[in-house]
Every structure is written in C-alpha cells, then in structure tokens.
Amino acid sequence: MSTSGLDVARVRADFPILHQEVRGRPLVYLDSAASGQKPQAVLDAITHFYAHDNANVHRGVHLLSERATEAFEGAREKVRRFLNAREAKEIVFVRGTTEAINLVAQTFGRKHVGPGDEVLITELEHHANIVPWQMLCEQQGARLKYVPVDAHGDLVLDGLEALLTPRTRILAVTHVSNALGTVVPVKELVRRAHAKGVPVLVDGAQAVTHFPVDVQALDCDFYAFSGHKLFGPMGIGVLYGKKELLEAMPPYQGGGDMILSVTMEKTVYNRIPHRFEAGTPDVAGAVGLGAAIDYLEALGREAIAAHDQALLAYAEGALGSVPGVRRLGHGQERSGVVSFVMQDIHPHDIGTILDREGVAIRTGHHCAQPLMKCFGVAATARASLALYNTREDVDALVRGLHKVREVFA
Ligand code: PMP
C-alpha cells in the first residue's frame, strides 16, 4: 500500500503484461504516456463483447444488435459520467485524440475560420494539436498563432489578451504537456478566452489518466482524449463538445449511421452524436474503454492522482541524484512525465541501454518538435508514470542511468 491509499501491488496484479521478462530482466514499463497497459477487466470486457454480444449497432432489430447497441451507448454514458458532461449526446466516439482534433478543425473550423482569421494554439502542443490547425489555416487562408512557453515549461500568459484578437476563432491548448509534464491552468485560459468570445478546445490526452477532469467545471467547449492512454483499447477515443456547438457543426465524414434519410439528391443528417460517427464504430473499443473507466473509478480517481503525484516527486528527486542528468520541465504544476537529457549522450542511446536492462522509456521529440526547438534540444529521454508504477521501477531506471554513464565514461 502506498501513502496515497492506492494498493499498487494489487493494481499490478490486474495488469498481466507487466509480469514478464524482457531481455532477461523483469519488465519496468515507464512509457505509459505513449500508451497505457490494460487491466484484465478491459481484456475481459472486449472478449466478452466478441464472444457474446457482437453485432452491428443502431441497425438490427435482432437481439444481438440490441445488446451491442446497449453496450455501445452504455459506454457513452460511462464517458459522460467520467467527464461530468451534461448529456451523453455531447460524447462523440472517435479513433483517438488526433481524430477528435481533426474533426473539430474540419467541421467547426471550416465553418467558422475564414480568410484573415486566427487560430491560437501554444508552443507546448503535441503535433496532433498543431498540424490539423496548420492544415485548416492553409485551407482557409487563416493565421496560426502561438502562446509562448517560458524556460520552465509554463505558458507565458501575460500577453494572452493581446493574442486573443477580434479575429481569433478558437484557442486549442493541451491540458498536460506530453513532453514536459506541465499542467496548464486551462480553467483560467477558458475564462479569459470566453471573456473575448473565443471557444476553447482542450487536448486531454495526458490529463485524464492522472487526475479527475470535469468539463462543466472547466467550461471548455471541446475536450479530447484517447482510450489507449487511459488503460483502454487502441483505436477508440472521445471528443466531448458542448451540445449547442456540436448541433451547429456540419458533419465530418459521410456514410451510414450519420444520416436520417438519403435520397439521390439530398441527405438529411442525423442528430448528434451520431452525425459525427459515420460507418460502423469500434464497438468493442468503446466497451473496453467503458471497462477501463469502471476500473479507474473503482480504484478511486483521487487515490490514483495522489499516487501519481507522490511517485512523480520521487522520480524527479531520484533523477536529480544522477550526475549529468538535466531535467527539462520545471513548470509550476507537473504531472506524469519526467523529461531529461544527459550530457551529450544521445537520448536514443540512453533508451537503448535502458531497454537492455528491461526498462522501457520513450526517447525522441515526443511529437512536439516546436517545443523541443524552444528548449534548444532535438530530443529528450522521457520516463512516464502510471498507477501501476512503483518506487522500485524508478530505482531500476536510476540504476540503468548509472549504467549509461559507465558506458559513456
Ligand atoms: N496529444 C497529446 C498531449 C498526446 O500525448 C498524444 C499522444 N502522444 C496525442 C495528442 C495524440 O494521441 P493519439 O495518438 O492517441 O491520437
């Protein structure tokens, strides 16, 4: 039992993948920011769906289709509760954060962003929250602007009002930086953007895994996250959107399920959220995501948050004890990841040597090349923490880093 009240030994027992050796060493998985592992409950829910309920949704009159539809819509209700959205129709199932942001850029964006308009993002963003806006701006003749980041990894918010001009049509911002761990004060950003009439999209890919998120309290207009990072399946994700906004948005993709009626001349589009879910959805993915949410809620999201914070503090301290290690990201509030460089050793070499010790971390630009440029590095090594990680995992990382030093001595 950790000090947070989370019984991590019991949690670990729920994740079969963790109990294996890699390269002859016990696996130490410190790459959950890239993709989280799945508890047995999620694997069972997916298997159960395919073994008992599999059929297409919203279409058949037969019992299996009814059960599949119930499972799918039941998962939507679980996501609604998880984010504290007002209504289940505000939850759109997509492939992941990337697709959620592309959907908003190509529907809301194409409708509201015109020549000479501006889209505001930040220097902290993952490519998933940069490229769709660059594409939109190119298509529409609009301008992409960035809220700058300071040397600690915090956004510089002094100049925010000046960046929010009468031409700004949307602000898109990450909740937690995947590269530095900075927690962005999104509630404050939403308040300040709304004061200027600007809607806000929040990229929550790295936030929902670590602490409770309440979209009504944040008052954000859109919120996106990926199932696979939340210990659910790959290929499923969520776009939350305020009902009034979603209802006024044109469809994303055309096809089955997003229509009410089709004639040879014209289509009447379906209501939300189905208008944005063309074609057969990943029903098993949604069911698995629902199971992941049940799992996290049963453990207690506050307990998970406390564990993650305590372990992050431990990891930051432990890495600080390794000579030559320089941590990047000293933002006021941080979550989930420790990003670092080590003298002039290439991060890929660090990752490769650690891998031989059974320690899995991520190295590279973390799909945040503009941010790396701000910090004057091409890449970092990044260890990321989750509810099943322990101090022993961090100690194994530190031992591995001492090996790295020996190799390069
Ligand atoms: N935003 C952030 C902050 C992320 O960390 C990631 C995944 N690394 C994404 C967006 C993209 O998520 P996905 O690949 O699941 O669509």
UniProtKB/TrEMBL annotation:
<comment type="function">
    <text>Catalyzes the removal of elemental sulfur and selenium atoms from L-cysteine, L-cystine, L-selenocysteine, and L-selenocystine to produce L-alanine.</text>
</comment>
<dbReference type="InterPro" id="IPR020578">
    <property type="entry name" value="Aminotrans_V_PyrdxlP_BS"/>
</dbReference>
<keyword id="KW-0663">Pyridoxal phosphate</keyword>
<feature type="domain" description="Aminotransferase class V">
    <location>
        <begin position="28"/>
        <end position="397"/>
    </location>
</feature>
<dbReference type="InterPro" id="IPR010970">
    <property type="entry name" value="Cys_dSase_SufS"/>
</dbReference>
<dbReference type="GO" id="GO:0030170">
    <property type="term" value="F:pyridoxal phosphate binding"/>
</dbReference>
<comment type="similarity">
    <text>Belongs to the class-V pyridoxal-phosphate-dependent aminotransferase family. Csd subfamily.</text>
</comment>
<dbReference type="Pfam" id="PF00266">
    <property type="entry name" value="Aminotran_5"/>
</dbReference>
<protein>
    <recommendedName>
        <fullName>Cysteine desulfurase</fullName>
        <ecNumber>2.8.1.7</ecNumber>
    </recommendedName>
</protein>
<dbReference type="GO" id="GO:0016829">
    <property type="term" value="F:lyase activity"/>
</dbReference>
<dbReference type="GO" id="GO:0031071">
    <property type="term" value="F:cysteine desulfurase activity"/>
</dbReference>
<dbReference type="InterPro" id="IPR015424">
    <property type="entry name" value="PyrdxlP-dep_Trfase"/>
</dbReference>
<keyword id="KW-0456">Lyase</keyword>
<dbReference type="GO" id="GO:0006534">
    <property type="term" value="P:cysteine metabolic process"/>
</dbReference>
<dbReference type="InterPro" id="IPR016454">
    <property type="entry name" value="Cysteine_dSase"/>
</dbReference>
<dbReference type="InterPro" id="IPR015421">
    <property type="entry name" value="PyrdxlP-dep_Trfase_major"/>
</dbReference>
<dbReference type="InterPro" id="IPR000192">
    <property type="entry name" value="Aminotrans_V_dom"/>
</dbReference>
<dbReference type="InterPro" id="IPR015422">
    <property type="entry name" value="PyrdxlP-dep_Trfase_small"/>
</dbReference>
<keyword id="KW-0808">Transferase</keyword>
